[in-house]
Design goal:
Number of strands: 0
Structural class: mainly alpha
Radius of gyration: 16 Å
Strand content: under 5%
Number of domains: 1
């Protein structure tokens, strides 16, 4: 949850993508445990990690909405003004 909230508050855009990315990272960590002696990947560990990351991102989003955060020009992601179709 702490990781999700950190990402949600640190990068104030694309919260859904953050939650999906953190869930994918949790899956990658579980898959990587296949090659570590003494460790075993478990679906339950993945679910706990992915859900807690999603709850953290959701908590950050709700915090930003509750404080009525209004993004200014300095808070936009880099490169938005540089590219126009």
């Amino acid at each position: 949850m702490l990781c999700g909230m950190s990402f949600g508050l640190g990068y104030r855009f694309a919260h859904l993508r953050q939650a999906i990315g953190l869930a994918a990272f949790a899956g990658a960590i579980e898959i990587a445990q296949v090659w570590v002696p003494g460790r075993h990947p478990r679906i339950s560990d993945f679910l706990v990690d992915a859900i807690s990351a999603g709850v953290g991102v959701l908590a950050a989003w709700l915090t930003l909405k509750a404080t009525r955060w209004e993004g200014g020009p300095r808070d936009k992601p880099a490169g938005i003004e540089l590219w126009r179709p």
